[in-house]
Amino acid sequence: MQLYNSLSHKKEDFIPREAGKVGMYTCGPTVYHYAHIGNLRSYIMEDILEKYLRFTGLDVKRVMNITDVGHLTSDGDTGDDKMLKGAKREHKTVMEIAKFYTDAFFADCAKLNIKTPDVVVPATTYIDEFIKVISSLMEKGYAYEAGGNIYFDTSKLDKYYVFGDLSEEDLEVGVREGVEADGNKRNKADFVLWFTKSKFDDQELKWESPWGVGYPGWHIECSCISMKNLGEYLDLHCGGIDNAFPHHTNEIAQSEAYLGHKWCNYWFHVHHLNTTSGKMSKSKGEFLTVSLLEEKGYDPLVYRFFCLNSHYRKSLVFSWENLDNAAVSFNKLIDRIVPLTKEAAGDIDQTEYDRLRKSFDDALGNDMNTSLAVTAVYDVLKSGANASTKLALLRDFDTVLGLDLIKKAQEKADAAENSAADIPAEVLELVEQRKAARKEKNFALADELRDKITALGYEVKETRQGTEINKL
Ligand code: AMP
Ligand code: ZN
Fold this sequence. Notes:
Elements: E1 2-5, E2 10-13, E3 21-26, H1 37-55, E4 59-66, H2 82-90, H3 94-111, E5 119-122, H4 127-139, E6 143-146, E7 149-152, H5 168-171, H6 173-176, E8 191-195, E9 215-216, H7 219-230, E10 234-240, H8 244-259, E11 264-270, E12 273-275, E13 278-279, H9 290-295, H10 300-308, E14 316-318, H11 320-342, H12 350-365, H13 370-382, H14 387-401, H15 405-421, H16 425-439, H17 443-455, E15 458-463, E16 466-471
Parallel strand pairs: 3-4, 3-10, 4-5, 10-11, 12-14
Antiparallel strand pairs: 1-2, 6-7, 7-8, 8-9, 12-13, 15-16
Helix pairs in contact: 2-3, 4-7, 7-8, 10-11, 11-15, 12-13, 12-14, 13-14, 16-17
The chain binds adenosine monophosphate and zinc ion.
Adenosine monophosphate binds near residues 27, 30, 67, 243 and 272.
């Protein structure tokens, strides 16, 4: 497949290091609150990527961390501790908060058909690993102690890799975010590996380390969890675009300093979901969660469908109106699949199957063009292929799209059949007579029969899928 690589700023052929196998790492959630649907846009698109790689026959091992320690409100190691903030807000311990929101995250993922990665590691379970890597960075001269904390020294690198064309000013993250800069840092871009002198007197989680009792910085967790589970060469690293700097830049710095060679070949970044008023936030305005969508009557998979209709490298604007439009299109799509579930099975037409599958494959193979992949679904429905071929293709595509296309169509077909079972024989007989009248173009009689049906408390409608009978 061709994939845009943030490292080289261009589309490249995706070639895993070991033929047939992919090591894939995803930055997981910070579990101090519910994930908002912006966070989940990133996880949906990463899920599609993983499933597409599997679709092409690759054996993917995917690893994700859970950030339950070390993430401060500013990515530049300043501000408040996010987990502590969550615990104070809810008068609970940090570990209680972590457990609750980790479970909530996976419950949301399940509703969105996002597969759980093969390996999921809470950062608090890997403290020894962090200490091992930080010790090695100290020995190699890439880290120093200042003011009680351990920092990574970015001036020791040949190149401090920054994705995109960020300026010197952008590198002053702390200053940019209006928070006091950390005077212990030798260089502006240096970052914390281990906080020993915590500025939070009430820091709940602390561990012994060679540098005193403390806790890890945020960036070290992803490098260590990835290297431990996927080895010293990583094929693919994913995250939302806000993770690109400084988080991913710092992951590269410390991993490559530790390993002594290049670490990860491809970097995949999903652009943001914004609201009409700007950046999506957990603290401002309406907190958009999967539960809120459900409370408002939306099927979570409508949100997945909404995300699929735009490219992951473009920011996407969320509005209720846009979601409504997605809901209408999604329902219409399912309605078009309903008749296929009832048609008799035939042999699969291999030529048509291969042709239509190729257009789906080409769409996703071209830097994951999900909206064209959805178009390929419509192309299947429009095609002259028989019902079995169409169903087989939809089943195949849905292993990547994750929209439950056939399951939903089947449910709709069953619901329609069940409701037909409740309709009195007298009404069904009148409906049959009306059908015959319409066939003979005797519309006066058809109208008369419709009135009789209405008088019995039923409504009869002609739709694309045939005659529909509903109770009034
Ligand atoms: P966090 O829980 O803050 O660590 O973020 C979890 C994931 O969501 C990370 O990959 C972020 O880059 C990503 N993310 C944060 N905000 C958004 C957004 N508005 N749209 C898409 N992805 C986001
Ligand atoms: Zn990460």
